Amino acid sequence: MALQAIAFYLMALITLASGFCVVSARNPVHSVLWLILSFFSAAGLFVLLGAEFLAMLLVVVYVGAVAVLFLFVVMMLDVDFASLRQGFARYMPLGLVVAAILAAEMVLVSSTVAGRGAAKASLGPMATGGAPANVTNAEAIGRVLYTDYVYFFQAAGMVLLVAMIGAIVLTLRHKPGVRRQVVMDQVLRSPASGMRMSNPRSGEGIGSGEGIGE
Amino acid sequence: MGFLPNFGVWWDAFQASPAGWVAWTVGHILLITVVLLLTIAFVIYGDRKIFAGVQARKGPNVVGPFGLLQSFADLGKFLIKELVIPAGADKAVFLLAPLISVTLALGAWAVMPIAPGWSVSNINVGVLYLFAVSSLGVYGIIMGGWASNSKYPFLGALRSAAQMVSYEVSIGFVMITVILLAGTLNLNEITKAQDGGIWHWFMFGGGPNWQTNWPLLLVMFPMGVIFFISGLAETNRPPFDLPEAESELVAGYAVEYGSTPYMLFYLAETSNIVLMSGLMAVLFLGGWHAPWPEGYLAAWPAWLASLHGLVFYAIKTFFVFFMNAMVRSIVPRYRYDQLMRLGWKVFLPTSLVAVFIVSGWLVYTGMGA
Lengths: 214, 369
Hints:
The complex is a heterodimer of chains A (about 210) and B (about 375).
Chain A: H1 2-24, H2 28-49, H3 52-76, H4 81-85, H5 88-114, H6 118-122, H7 124-129, H8 137-145, H9 150-171, H10 183-188, H11 191-194
Helix pairs in contact in A: 1-2, 2-3
Chain B: H1 3-16, H2 18-54, H3 70-80, H4 91-107, H5 126-147, H6 151-182, H7 187-192, H8 210-213, H9 217-234, H10 246-249, H11 259-284, H12 302-330, H13 336-365
Helix pairs in contact in B: 1-2, 2-11, 2-12, 3-11, 4-5, 4-11, 5-6, 6-9, 6-13, 9-11, 9-13, 11-12
């Protein structure tokens, strides 16, 4: 148990410290790198809880995909951080209020969970469904996700689909006159349609009447 | 010999105690890492020899007999070169990038089932772990490219990020088809599901219920091919080595690197290639199982049986690596838009349809795990 406690405090410390560095780092790319470290140590905390499936999903989805694209964008942007910092004092009270509300909510939720008040009610399907103790993490989640919460799961999928379509619609431009590569046409070209044999007489060349690019 | 039974009892007690467990695990990790590094040294040599053979050259043949010690000579040279950090570089990130690359590349081997009971960590989400670690590999490259503060490395890093993210999607779907057939995310269990001969391998649609599932050959064989090609793209191997395309980007993300950091990048890349070959062997080619029924192994001592497994795992991994090296020497480099088209417009829909077919088949035949 002592080892687990040490691991927990170490990873919690790294999570918090890197979270702090995300907002305090001067360079935006460093901020993203710190953010990745904090995701990663949060995944470590999941492993300590025995939720290795969630931990791996966190790494695959957030660290492996979302943060890569984030880093991608931040590296391409040329952010002038001096101008961004000018409004710091003005936005400070608002930020503090938001932080206070968030902190209050989190304390509220974690104290309820600690007292097992709300947690018991939401534990319903697992308790009544009688999941055997030896199922793996992924299986346990699958059993709940695809049965009791299948509508929420579908709704989440729909939200993502709509978001994806929205992103495509926002960036879609129909420009007339753009020549696109049609791979199928290229593959289906035969010698008969792709070239023409001719035998021009010396000094005359190929006449413009029977031009090459008809 | 009264010594051996006593030793067995002592050994069990040693492994059960916390200190003994830690010592055993650390020793296990060290053993695997050292063997892996030695293997990589010879894999690099083999890669160069195959490449040379295809081009009717001799390849490395000076250092040691047949040039076998070439990689060690290279290692020595890399280590004694001066480390140059560009003036405009972000020093910390610049040095961190190769370290991250090599840590992830070696760490991925923790779950690899190289022989029965030989993986360092037999975790239930082994496939996901490997997927996660290989998707993190992009950070080494993108950090190195950015921290160099130079045009070509940056372009190489951006290309690499886009490329690896694109091909991860299809790799993920291909893995899902195998997971559906095996009914588990544990790599050891996936290997065990392919026990009993070549017709049980997932490349041929088999698995434990091959009598019912053999028509899936039509789906799983193309999935194996897609996995192989996506693995090439994921590890930045030719014909998908656009992040370091020398005709366009000099050496891509590695332009500003030299000495030991460059060696670490190179080591990580080769380790990832061997990892992808090993993963292909585990997911599609039966892992440590021989291509024939292995009933005779029951009579063998346990250590010999696991050695038997190790030999077959190594043969398969090297076979996939050999294919990899042949592709490198035969196929010309893709253009970048063709690469993206292949990933998003060909592999992604194909593997997605394959997931539908496999899961539909398993529901229809009632063979779902």
